[in-house]
Amino acid sequence: MPLTDQERIVNEKQTPHLLQLWRSLTPLQTIVSFMNTGAHPDDETSAMLAAMAFRDGIDISYACSTRGEGGQNDIGTETGQALGVLRTAEMERACDILNLRMYWHSQTPDDSIFDFGFSKSGIETLGKWDKKRTLKRFVEIIRTERPDIICPTFLDIPGQHGHHRAMTEAAHLVMDLAADPNYDECDLEPWQVKKMYLPAWSGAGQAYDDDLPPPPATLTISGDGIEAGSGWGYHRIGQQSRAFHRTQAMGRWVPSGEEHHFPLHLADSRLDGPDVVLESGLAKTLADVNVSEISTILKKAQAQMDAARASFPDNVKILKHANSALESVREAIKFCPENAKADVLHKLVRKETQLSNLIRVAARVEVISRTDLDVLRPGEATPLTIEVRKGRSDQVVVTPELPDDWSYIDGQISIDDRADVSDPYPSIYLPDTPTVPCLNVEVTVYGVTSCSRVQLEVQPNVIPLKSAIMTPVTQIINVNANRRQIDVAVDGVMNDAERTNLIVPDGWVANATNMGFEVTAPDNVDVGLYELSLTVSDVPAQSVTEINYPHVAPRALAQPAKVKVLVIDTKLSNSRIGYVGGGNDRVDYWLAQMGLNVTSLTDTDLQSDQTLATYDSIVIGIFAMKFRDGLLEQMPRLHKWCENGGNLVTLYHRPWDNWNPDAVPPKYLKIGQPSLRWRVTDENAEVEILQPEHSIFNLPNIISSNDWEGWHKERGLYFAMDWDASYTPLLSMHDPDEQALLGSMLTAKINKGRHTHTSLILHHQMEKLTPGAFNIMANLIYNDG
């Protein structure tokens, strides 16, 4: 839906005119461009980029390999491609703060370049991504953006994330490939990156422990000072950007005095002379560009841009100088000789864009637009409201710029029947040059007309014509439970005249209901995975997953409309189970689907000894110690319940999730960090059961080698590193060429009860319908006391 008035007011407060004006002037001081490279949304070096952009005027960009599909989610339960859509939207908002030009290696939800989970090897990563495909896309990005400098965020050394290592290796290779005219995987004009820097700081921390020291610094980017236009330090601005990475719990307050510098190591240079500052060897301004045919014009343009900056905050003077600079830049573009275009033209075009945006801001022209609907199908239409304030301009002409098969007539946008659906994985995001749909704004002031693009307030999403919202899209049937029926809700079909039908396997029955379908499996249904497909008016439909959070623009992911149903043979206990979730998993849902008696415990339940006594087992979900308010304070009560015979199961937590090793578990249990050393990333790693006679492997199900097959992403993470002697390690596993880890599952008798802590990613395996995860979970919650 469109923004509310309150949301609009809050957004306006964040972008006062003087700040917009200052940040529109800052890029005029240089033509140097710098590309940061990384593997995930949030890998960008935000504070350094903020200083470069808003102090030094450098044109900054970021090339990122994956959408973060395999990461964790601190704000919801989205995983996989849906999480990739959400993290893409978060990255775009982070880019808006820094005016950071964004390029993705991964271009579709099914791209070979994806976040397949944690890796410890760059070689493994490039093997899964397809090294040839990765380098091809990297060359495309370099030749499109044409940066002077590239700089990976991380080092390619042992102890670092394999995805980071792969991107740093690729950055070394792309220096030559992008400049090679004989490289035939990309038909864009070759471009020679002039310099490559590496971080001269360690990437060690909570997650990684780089085995080798960083290279020596050859220059340092200062992190000191404050932005003149806002009064904020550059680390603070960096955190304003990082705060949009909420799925990764980013954004922290940087106290004054804790700012630091950014030492860089020159790893590769194609320039002569000493490298003293970042722009050493490069033309810093238009006046430094050595093209004799347009040299005089460029010097005039730079002088006018310098004068515009010096005139801050006088809008009238800024406008006059910016107009003059724009005319000179356009003249330079017109007369730029052919032999110089490859090196210079893209910089002139960037300056034209920057000056046009400055003129719109300095003239105090305001253009705001919104559609009544933010979700549309082909064939639908919505009114478009455009608010325009002329400001100091002589004339403002606003024209909607629309995708193919969209039209704008009489204040209304119409979507043609043949229109493409919206792309939830856009390959490029340029904050100051938005893609369609947007508004083209022509501003005429003092006789000079400039053109710039303005985003719509909320970008509408076009979803497939034959689509629906199906829930849930993954379900299980347990042959040891009485239930053979599942319900599939269907919503969001275009109109009531559309006929929906659910195609089910032989022997299954699907009956239409007011909400969707009631599906019944045969009494003697075989164990295995089944698919149910939806058609709309006899056409295979798409299922739409809406991604809608207040900190990002809404997105929609369309995929084939199918429900996957896993039939399992998992024996159950009669235990009464309580579940304490933090909102980051759906383990309680899966326990209920298995046929177990499970209740999600409220805060009031946790505060009542009498209520707790009615439960045989209690499961604490992932991250719950962090996200469940008051849970930490209730742990003594849960310990007492456990001592009295309760079966307490804690699922994996990070050390920073309020996991006090002396207070959260009934006995001392410390989670390991850096996490790279305390996880098994190979989802097929051999698992040794150390206590095969233990009830956890025998009641009510016999856990066998079959239960460790077909795992997804990894075995587990945040393993325990140290524990009280009361705990018994139950499993041993390790990644290739590494020592065995014993902290993936620990159990201890706690007086009459039992506590088991596991770092296996069982919640994720259940979402991915891994059969063994259901057997293991059923045994963990079995109270054999």
Could you state the oligomeric state of the chains shown? Answer: single chain
- Rounded to the nearest angstrom, the radius of gyration is 29 Å
Tell me the number of structural domains: 3
Specify the CATH architecture of the largest domain: 3-Layer(aba) Sandwich
In short:
Helices cover 26% and strands 24% of the residues.
Overview of the structural elements:
The structure is a single chain. With 785 residues, this protein is α/β, with parallel strands linked by helices. It folds into three domains: 32-282, LmbE-like (Rossmann fold, 3-Layer(aba) Sandwich); 465-568, Immunoglobulin-like (Sandwich); 576-780, Rossmann fold, CATH 3.40.50.880. The protein contains 18 helices and 39 strands. It has an eight-stranded mixed beta sheet, sandwiched between helices. A seven-stranded mixed beta sheet has the order 30-29-31-32-39-38-36, sandwiched between helices. The protein has a six-stranded mixed beta sheet with strand order 22-23-20-18-26-27. β1, α3 and β2 form a beta-alpha-beta unit. α4 packs antiparallel against α8 (234-242) and α5 (122-129) crosses α7. The protein is globular, with a radius of gyration of 29 Å. It starts with a helix and ends in a 5-residue tail after the last helix.
Architecture blueprint of SSEs:
Layout: H1 5-13, H2 17-25, E1 33-38, H3 46-54, E2 59-64, H4 80-98, E3 101-104, H5 122-129, H6 131-145, E4 149-152, H7 162-177, E5 195-199, E6 219-221, H8 234-242, E7 262-269, H9 295-310, H10 315-335, H11 338-362, E8 366-371, E9 375-376, E10 381-389, E11 395-401, E12 406-409, E13 412-415, E14 428-429, E15 438-445, E16 448-455, E17 461-462, E18 467-471, E19 474-478, E20 485-491, E21 500-503, E22 509-512, E23 516-520, E24 528-536, E25 539-540, E26 542-547, E27 555-560, E28 562-568, E29 576-580, H12 587-594, E30 597-600, H13 603-606, H14 609-612, E31 617-620, H15 624-627, H16 631-643, E32 647-650, E33 669-671, E34 688-689, E35 720-723, E36 728-729, E37 731-732, E38 745-750, E39 753-758, H17 762-767, H18 771-780
Parallel strand pairs: 1-2, 1-4, 2-3, 4-5, 9-17, 18-26, 19-28, 29-30, 29-31, 31-32, 32-39
Antiparallel strand pairs: 3-14, 5-7, 6-7, 8-10, 10-13, 11-15, 12-13, 15-16, 18-20, 20-23, 21-24, 22-23, 24-25, 24-28, 26-27, 33-35, 34-37, 36-38, 38-39
Helix pairs in contact: 2-11, 3-8, 4-8, 5-7, 6-7, 9-10, 10-11
